[in-house]
Amino acid sequence: MLNGSIIGWSHIAFGKYPSDTLETLMAKVIPLAIADAGIDPKDIDEGFIGLFNPGFSRQDFVSSLVMQSCPELRYKPFTRTENACASGSAAIFSGLKSITAKTARFVLVVGVEKMTDLPNEQIGEGLLKASYVKDEANINGGFAGIFAQIAQKYFAKYGNQSATLAKIAAKNHANGVKNPYAQIRKDLGYDFCSTISDKNPIVAAPLRRTDCSLVSDGAVAVIIAEPTIARKMDKCIDFRAATQTNDLLPMSMRDIIRFEGARYAWKASLEKAKISLKDIQLVETHDCFTIAELIEYEAMGLTEEGKGHQAIDQGWVYRGGKLPVNISGGLKAKGHPIGATGVSMHALVAMQLQGKAGEMQLSTNPALGAVFNMGGAGVANYVSILERHK
Fold first, then answer.
1. CA-to-CA distance for 198 and 187, rounded, in angstroms?
2. What's the mean pLDDT in 285-303?
3. φ and ψ at 2, to 5 degrees?
4. Each residue's pLDDT tens digit, 74-115
5. Is the alpha carbon torsion for 313, 316, 317, 319 positive or negative?
6. What is the pLDDT of residues 297-306, one digit of tens each?
7. Domain map (residue ranges) of the chain
8. Distant-in-sequence, close-in-space partners of 140: CB < 8 Å, separation ≥ 6
9. In the chain, at which end, N or C, are there fewer CB atoms within 10 A of the end residue's CB?
10. In Å, how far are 78, 95, 125, 185 from 47, measured between CA atoms?
11. Which pLDDT tens digit goes with each residue over 139-164?
12. What is the pLDDT of residues 124-137, one digit of tens each?
């Protein structure tokens, strides 16, 4: 069982930062996260940096760049983690392992990505490196084409769900309006999301532009502490469970519309936490494409297989529903700077649990929330269950 508590965070708005680099993006969040935790930089024992960067940026090897924004971190051990779109959660879990092993008391975790310097074609080529290149690199539409194939197979088995996908997109864009960190803060509405137009074209059939997450730059940092120390801090959000499962990379070797690795991770985390899904009060889930969020409703156990549409048709996943999903706007509205995404999800759930989410804050005052962050098409799967201690 992994132990650790989040005691501080810093999050910049996701979007386009043409004058920034990986180094300067990290510098925007590292000192603020340390200050938010109420500790000194010298208290940090170790750090992990989540970064995908399959050619998005010329600069790689970012682990020591943190020291240039905070000189007191010099000579501390820092390591870069990479697990495709779950690189940020890989960094979080690495920090938890150090805390659990008692090799660190305070861990700095940073998620960062700089994507927007490249033209779309090169970005697409980079994203495809999170697939099984041998078989999947030539799929039309790039990574959107991969999830388009998933949607096609899902539709073939359970019927056309384009309207459901549009409802998911509209929900998340409506939620994003309240998120100061979101790249798009505009309520696009169901009619726009469901209609193919010049502004909402088909990217890879049946997926429209509003079914696809955004190309983004961004950075987020959190401080994780040993739980007994965290109890003495101003904020303390505990990890009640943290589970990682990796599945086979080739889509041809899996039932791709079931997200079996995600199912396993959710089941294991709920068992570790000794709770059921009914006890969870909000979820931040990985909606890289709207079809992913739909299948994730089923993988987490909210609905039966093939009936994910019920979750949104019945209003369960809206702000006032029984299990609000992606109150932040998700990757769909918030943006998806790959390495930053998993750290962002954890920070946003922590904000909700601590009652510090501002306009996003749920009126239910949640005490128990969950994160599902996914690398590739259901390959690297991370589920965290977070609980407010204070």
1. 18
2. 98
3. -85, 135
4. 999 999 999 999 999 999 999 999 999 999 999 999 999 999
5. positive
6. 999 999 999 9
7. 5-118+215-230
8. 204
9. N
10. 5, 7, 30, 32
11. 888 899 999 999 999 999 999 999 99
12. 999 999 999 999 98
Burial status of residue 232 (CB atoms within 10 A of its CB: 0-12, 13-18, 19 or more): exposed
Tokens 């890289």 sit at which residue? 288
- Domain 5-118+215-230, CATH: 3.40.47.10
Token pair of 249 as six digits: 């990379």
Distance from C-alpha of 28 to C-alpha of 246, rounded to nearest angstrom: 32
Query: Is the pLDDT at 18 greater than 80, yes or no?
Result: yes
CA–CA separation, 315 vs 192, rounded Å? 20
Q: Which two tokens stand for residue 63?
A: 């682990």
